[in-house]
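User: Quick sanity check before I run a bigger batch. Here is a single chain. Can you write out its predicted 3D structure?
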Amino acid sequence: MALWDRRVFGPAHGVAGQKAGPKTGNRRIMTTPRHFVFILVEDFSHLAFSCALEPLRIANHVAGAPLYRWSLISPDGRTATSSNGEVTLVHGGLEPTRHADRLFVISGTGVQSRATPDLLRFLRRERSAGTQIGGICSGAYILAAAGFLDGEEAAIHWDYHDVFAENFPETRLVRSVFVANGRFTTASGGTAAADLMLHLIGLEHGADLAIAVADQMVYNAVRSGSDAQRVSLQSRHGMRNAHLIRAIALIEQSVEEPIAICDIADNLGISARQLERLFRKYLNCSPKRYIMEMRLHRARNLLVQSELSVTEIAMACGFSTTSHFSKVFRGFFGRTPFSFRAAAGALPEAGAPPPHPNPPPTGLRPH
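Assistant: Done. Predicted structure follows.
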């Protein structure tokens, strides 16, 4: 019989925060529930939040005992609005958590403006109190702004890699789904939050429970912390040519100082002409065109997500002059970097919902 079989662990009794009753035979004796606190920052990712919270609830359900309890807080202490427009009621604000076992910052779009002095002071106070702190989705950005991640490895949603790397060069940013082997735990968002929680459940209560929770979630592709966030190059481009995969990896690693085509070919042990043929066969473009488009897409991200000047962005993307950068950018996107940034700042973010037609209820708290 599996350790976490429901025939052994029946329905939970009591409320979160109470010790589970003693178990006999094969039944494990439960300890005081682990208390997780989630800080919901405005425009947080609802997907990442659900993927972080639901594994804890399911773990209690499967185990038949309150292994975990949780609290939701926000900077204003009343509500938090996610990037899809849904309003979530919270239990409180930025008061001391009274020795929470883990504290996670969950943020989403527009994170650069969310690292407020009040929030950073709260996080530093919690760290001084010994609370284990983590970040989910773009939450690592706020942890870095608090000064926590210098010299540390961290994971953040891939869409924020460029702006994070520019602002926090002392952090060793990784492209894996989560980092849980250092002082600060970070997950890259989306379903990576579920991967992280399943990892923590496995560490604290055994792999059998983590597997049972994943089964309840109908989640049969659980990833480890070392797995990549994005679809592999092979899957993304529908090919398995080893030379081309390695060439693209070299290009992605050298956006700031673009690598010469002949140097890529030499690294692969093939001729420049062979490399050209591979790109045209599989990607329908030249290596030079591929490199330029990658640099331009990175520039676009930095224009929208960072406060770097256009000149700084040009340098960060491998352009020697601002005028050349502006000319190439306009030829590709149809507008100059300056007008692109101005338009992006005047419009709601892609996918953002219209304002909520009714104000959220007051005086209520989630169960």
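The two ends are 34 Å apart (CA to CA).

User: Great, the batch can go ahead then.
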